[in-house]
Amino acid sequence: MPKVNLNRVAMPRQEPKVRARNFEEVALGYSFEQAVEEAKRCIQCPKRTCVAGCPVEVDIPDFILAVREGRMPDAVKIMKSKNALPGICGRVCPQETQCEEVCSLAKKAGQIAIGRLERYVADWEWMNLGVQAPVNPAPPSGKKVAVVGSGPAGLTAAADLAKYGHDVTIYEALHVAGGVLMYGIPEFRLPKVIVQNEVNYVKSLGVKIELDSVVGRIFTIDELLSNGYSAVFLGTGAGLPTFLGIPGENLSGIYSANEFLTRVNLMKAYKFPEYDTPVKLGKKVAVFGGGNVTMDSARCALRLGADVVHILYRRSEAEMPARREEVENAKEEGIQFRLLTAPKRFLGNEKSQVTGVECYEMELGEPDESGRRRPIVKPGSEFTVEIDVAIVAIGTTPNPLIAQTSKGLETTKHGTVVVKDELTGKTVKDRVWAGGDIVTGAATVISAMGAGKKAAADIDKFLRS
Predict the structure, then answer these.
(1) Residues 449, 158: contact at Cβ < 8 Å?
(2) Strand, helix or coil at 298?
(3) What's this model's pTM, rounded to 2 decimal places?
(4) What is the side-by-side order of every strand in the sheet holding 254-256?
(5) In a 3-state reduction of DSSP, which class is residue 55?
(6) Is 408 helix (H, G, I), strand (E, B) or coil?
(7) Distance CA 449, CA 49 (A)
(8) Nearest C-alpha neighbor of 184 from the set 257, 87, 98, 90
(9) What is the DSSP string of 84-139?
(10) Residue 308 · residue 284 · CB < 8 Å
């Protein structure tokens, strides 16, 4: 029996000092030879635990085998039979806590680099085949479905519904499709051309996309249901920012991460003056939080010209929800982590501009409802950090517009939509399904895609019953 190779093929990346001052993609991707070498490590185990660990159930060993044998068109076909957005997933999904975590080689720390191979297959398709719709589309069902929101949940649901043969229209509030994939994730982590490639693939399935269409303003869910649509899927995400609620938070120079990242990513403030988007360029920046959005905000601020960027987080690094890869990238680029630190109040000058933040030192107590140790203030530990820009990245909730204009749609105290069954996304409102961050609160791209996929299957079952 051949010896198992536990050495993952490294992903080529830009050098930290170089990438810290540009918005080009950090990870450069595998070459064909590197992809084949990594694919050869897969032992093609019969348990296929990696498939069970994938929220959209990609046939992982099959596509990896196709890569190993150089059958790239087959690899593309296998992957896209389950995943409509592989170029996105291969870049931003936390494979290390999903498919790779349950890989048979994970016990020996040699798990297959599934995400990197997924990215390679997707990029190979765009470079060699372009946008290609399925060869054998399903016959038209005669049923119309409205999808509200074009983020990962909405795009996935729309793609699967179209494959089932339904007439699908996506209503997107912004002027460009992609949702959080466009406004929330920076270019250096997810190039926007990749997002639009995936959007074009969904459109190639026959899905129509109506931009600048704010459901709840131009028409309600009930109006959609009474005007020819047999079902509605809600995938509007969680775009309403949460703030710290401390004194001085209304000073100039303090952003929510949503606003900051939208200006930088969607409105391309980093390309000033080609794109004349206003954003305050700080020299001393503080970002509050510990998730992926925190890392994205801090790394964007650095690339915009900041001399120093602090991440202030009230727990230790062990409790940080951000991907380890993103934390490591931020550290390599020079982001300063001030852990066990919580803000008390913002300080400003006579022009109402932020000049600093007074903070507490924290210590960790017993675990709270999240399972993480509760941060506790150390009495008399106050200290001040000088800043000229602050970015608050402590979480988001769904925009209340849909719930406020949809009679019979129930929400939780956090503003998320209530579903009767998490396996289907069916809400308590008749003929309405929901999935992604609008149900769970801010989570991952792949979990939203999984929710969109499950809802599409249940909608199809409903429409055919």
Answers:
(1) no
(2) helix
(3) 0.94
(4) 254-256, 389-392, 284-288, 308-313, 336-339
(5) coil
(6) coil
(7) 19
(8) 257
(9) S-HHHHHHHS-GGGTTTTTSTTGGGT----HHHHHHHHHHHHHHHT-S---SSPPP
(10) yes
Tokens of 329: 């990238």
Could you give the domains of the chain? 16-128 (1.10.1060.10), 144-239+397-464 (3.50.50.60), 243-394 (3.50.50.60)
Q: Are 396 and 238 in contact (CB under 8 A)?
A: yes
As beta bridge partners, residue 426 has: 421, 433
* Pick from 64, 73, 54: nearest CA to 117: 64
Q: How many other CB atoms are found less than 10 A from the CB of residue 462?
A: 15
Q: Are 88 and 118 in contact (CB under 8 A)?
A: no
CA-based nearest residue to 451, from 199, 60, 154: 154
Number of Cβ atoms within 10 Å of the Cβ of 400: 12
Which of 235, 158, 148, 142 has the alpha carbon at shortest distance from 201?
Answer: 158
CA 37-43-46 angle, 5° bins:
150
- Rounded distance, CA 307 to CA 315, Å? 25
Chunked in runs of 10, what are the mean pLDDT values of the chain (465 residues)?
Answer: 84 96 97 97 94 95 98 95 94 94 93 97 93 75 97 97 97 97 97 96 95 96 96 96 96 97 95 92 97 98 97 95 96 98 98 98 90 92 98 95 94 95 95 97 94 98 95
Cα 104 to Cα 1, 43, 115, 117: the distances in Å are 17, 9, 16, 17
Which letter does DSSP use for residue 263 in this model?
Answer: I
Q: DSSP code of 265? A: I
Separation between Cα atoms, residue 398 and residue 402, nearest integer Å:
9
